[in-house]
Amino acid sequence: MNPFELICPAGNPAALRAAVDAGADAVYLGFRDETNARNFPGLNFSRAELAEAVAYAHARSVQVFVAINTYPQAGNLAPWQRAVDDAARLKADAVILADLGLLDYAARHHPELRLHLSVQASAANAEAIRLYRDAFRVRRVVLPRVLTVPEIARLNAEVDVETEVFVFGGLCPMAEGRCSLSSYATGLSPNKQGVCSPASHVRYEPRGAALASRLGGFTINVFGAGEPAGYPTLCKGRFVPGGGASADPAYLFEEPTSLNALELLPDLKAAKVCALKIEGRQRGKAYIAAVVAAYRRALDAFARGQPVPSLDLDAMVEGGSQTTGAYTRAWR
Amino acid sequence: MHDPGPMVQEHAPEDQARNVEVRLTRAGLGLARRLGDGAGGLLLDRLLRILEARHPRAFAALGELPDARLLIDPVDAPAALLLRVGPGLALRVCGRDAEAEATVRGPCARLLDLLEGRIDGDALFFRRELSIEGDTALILALRNTLDGEEMDLFADIAAAAGPLRHALPVARRNAGRVLGLLGTARRFAPPPLRWGMAVLERRLSGPRQGA
Ligand code: SF4
User: Fold this and answer.
1) Rounded to 5 degrees, what are φ and ψ at B139?
2) Against a cut of 0.90, is the pTM above it?
3) Which chain B residue has its CA at the smallest distance from A200's CA?
4) Core-most of A246, A332, B5, B126, by most CB within 10 Å?
5) For ligand 1, is residue A233 a contact (CB within 6 Å)?
6) Is residue B141 one of the residues assigned to a domain?
7) Helix (H) or strand (E) holding A140
8) Which residues pair with A222 in a beta bridge?
9) Residue B10 belongs to some domain of the structure
10) Position B152 confidence tier, pLDDT thresholds 50, 70, 90
11) CB-hemisphere CA count at 13 Å for A186?
């Protein structure tokens, strides 16, 4: 039996079929509105599409998780509550929630529905996780991308709740106030409306052979000729510190590299992590098919005790390079 | 005059079939441009109607977008395309400098891959093989809408041509072999004939820029 569940993203029905066919154990997705953290034009699922997705996945023994992981706006809870009701009615296997009020609503109205805690909730210590378990019967916690593997191991030794960690894709820690930068630049919130660096505020401008990426009027990065480009996400911007006094622009928060924790499979298994998650609901189905298939091969080899094939996915990722992120950050 | 040499390289049959499709697309663009707005426009209208019949969901979504123009510029093809989304959905050939709210630029083969969801647009953008300008939300909406479909331009067209639809898979399987034979024929043909073949091939593909 495989020690890990492989949890894969889908931004539309075609991507869901690609993920299921490529070997996902579960697919996570969102409704086409502000109730999920990837609320982008043309993306996500209608209710009818969710019903079809569940039928397609269940026929192949694959689970479907619905992310309802933004924070409801005061006085406007209905869209979030309706999303939970519809996910339960359409037989989703779990909902991924972050907001306390919504967790409470789901626990009261749908006692049979499996609740997972979103990475958005940033539950990073045993006390917080126990609270979510005791108060709302949360069965699984998606851990924030700021923990090292030894920290995850300690956490798992202290709690009896399943843990899921991100292993591949864009680094979006959704913590420590970074997302407020995006809200400041655009007036729209990643955490409340599901729009980090919304496309309506993004512009790419050629500057000779260079490419400038801009968000809401701010230049976030300038990529030199041939340098791999990235999205203008503020937490991955390149800035000139010291009010322009410093010579070189530098990445102040995160670099636009992509997470790949494949080499950490033995450590994550020893740390008793239960599920591995691939980021990228906003990516195309070709990305999903390639990344899911590569991870499936790697996990199967790992389960058989064979050497894990190294994955050549550099060409797929932002910044054209990969990192093990906070999992191995020595300075922490 | 230089001997053009064998133009067809040894590739997997699917790659070779793809090669032919890319050349046909370029040739189609060249033809539509030569036909002008009248007959060329009718040709592109017909293409849109064929695709719409096969992908009603995507076309309904494109029709619901706000009225805007997207310049699709295959840099190695003889002309670019102007796609109008919104209630007046339309497709026309145009020059590379046509006015539009957003522009997508890249090699013809990559744009075709993108249309059919064979390749990830973000990955192409990260690698700087694809450049985008203007209204990013419009480009993203179009990308996400097309990515939700299982589009296959040539199969869709062939299907609309009735009996031809059975011929396409066979043609694709055999494209490699036919191209291989052509390549061999060219290698053994006397030089004047070889040049003639190359000229014919170039004419079929239309003038190529920057390739
Ligand atoms: S600002 Fe950074 S951390 Fe916040 S949602 Fe955007 S990418 Fe994620």
Assistant:
1) -65, -40
2) no
3) B137
4) B126
5) yes
6) yes
7) strand A138-142
8) A212
9) no
10) confident
11) 26
